[in-house]
Design a protein that fits this description.
By secondary structure, the protein is α/β, with parallel strands linked by helices. It folds into two domains: 205 residues, Stationary-phase Survival Protein Sure Homolog, Chain: A, CATH 3.40.1210; 38 residues, no CATH class. The protein contains seven helices and eleven strands. The strands form two sheets. The protein has a nine-stranded mixed β-sheet with strand order 3-4-2-1-5-6-7-11-8, with helices on both faces. Helix 2 runs parallel beside helix 4. It is found in: Cytoplasm. It is an enzyme of class 3 (hydrolase). It catalyses: a ribonucleoside 5'-phosphate + H2O = a ribonucleoside + phosphate.
Length: 277
């Protein structure tokens, strides 16, 4: 199996290094990663943003390539431009420095955004993120990314000969504890989210958002420790799994779900255009 490895923390990230070192002994790996930190950019592409020039630079790297662009840019380059593109079987994005759990966060994550971009381009993907119970960010803790890289390797070995991507599943969102785990749970993301905009100093305003809790959180700032709100999480959720020390594996599909509209909505639109008064 040939892996396209990318991330949103940049080519120098220890999470990317751990993934590369654990995957290369058994798999062929080509890295296409951002030149710098691209955290929180979601699925932004340089050709679809007014704030980014419609051009990128691609430089050689000992592991593959470095792209002066977003994670989604890297996936597009890896699947549509480089000589290895036709051989890629799976995209792995990560390992991210910090968890990506809950539906709202998934839409903002550059790690997950790379996986979604891969799905739109017809290649399955696995997004991998790490969580440290003590420091939140694995990069700040003593355990770092070794166990997360090992969990990524083992998960790929488990699913390689399965039909996981033969149906409606396009990518997996994986969150792993930095301390390691002997337990894996298939989960779903919570869809809860709320935010408030409050006065800061009379001149600016700030956001107070419940990224991790299922109720409003005031004044705690970001990041908010997941363990603090452990009692809020249903057992089936991605948050509950990693708080309990499990590896969370969330199967997801793309594109966005199509929903059948109610009859009164359709009937209302049938009256268009409205008669002039």
């Amino acid at each position: 199996m040939h892996i396209l490895l990318t991330n949103d923390d940049g080519i120098e990230s220890p999470g990317l290094t751990a993934a590369y070192e654990h995957l290369t002994p058994t798999l062929e790996v080509t890295v296409v990663a951002p030149a710098g930190d691209q955290s929180g950019v979601g699925r932004s592409r340089s050709d679809l943003s007014y704030e980014r020039a419609d051009e990128i630079t691609i430089d050689d790297h000992e592991w593959g390539y470095v792209v002066d662009g977003t994670p989604a840019d890297c996936v597009a380059v890896g699947l549509r431009h480089i000589p290895e593109a036709e051989a890629i079987d799976l995209v792995v994005s990560g390992a991210n420095n910090g968890p990506n759990v809950g539906s709202y966060i998934l839409g903002h994550s550059g790690t997950v955004g790379a996986a979604v971009e891969a799905a739109f381009l017809g290649t399955p993907a696995v997004a991998v993120s790490g969580y440290d119970h003590e420091t939140y960010f694995p990069e700040d803790g003593d355990n770092s990314f070794d166990a997360i890289g090992a969990a990524t390797r083992d998960l790929l070995a488990l699913i390689e000969d399965t039909a996981v991507f033969d149906g409606e599943i396009d990518y997996l969102n994986v969150n792993a504890p930095a301390t390691g785990s002997d337990t894996l749970a298939v989960t779903k993301p919570l869809a809860d989210y709320d935010t408030r905009v409050v006065d800061n100093d009379g001149e600016t305003s700030v956001f107070e958002s419940n990224y991790w809790a299922t109720h409003p959180v005031e004044g705690d700032g970001f990041p908010i420790g997941l363990d603090t709100y452990a009692d809020d999480y249903p057992a089936w959720s991605d948050r509950a799994a990693i708080v309990d020390g499990e590896i969370s594996v969330t199967p997801l599909g793309t594109p966005q779900s199509v929903v059948d509209p109610p009859a009164d909505f359709v009937a209302a639109l049938d009256r268009y255009p409205l008669e002039e008064a």
